[in-house]
Amino acid sequence: MTTLELYEIATPKSRQSSVIAGLAALAARFAAWRARRRTILRLAGLDAIQLADIGLERTDVEDALDGDARRLWIKIGQRNAG
What we know:
Blueprint: H1 3-10, H2 13-44, H3 48-53, H4 58-65, H5 70-81
């Protein structure tokens, strides 16, 4: 018997649905993080001229690779809004 099967037997239904909703939300956040990370890695493969064509700078991408992607996402958001 798996841990999930034991959990389903031992836990009340209201608690199960709460936990399942939490896991679904966590899975959605992880998928979004993975998509953002994939975007950053693809942007890192572009040269300075290509980045300038889409309104970004090499430092934006380097900062995002170092973990501070706020400026990059702000610039992308402004570009998409305009």
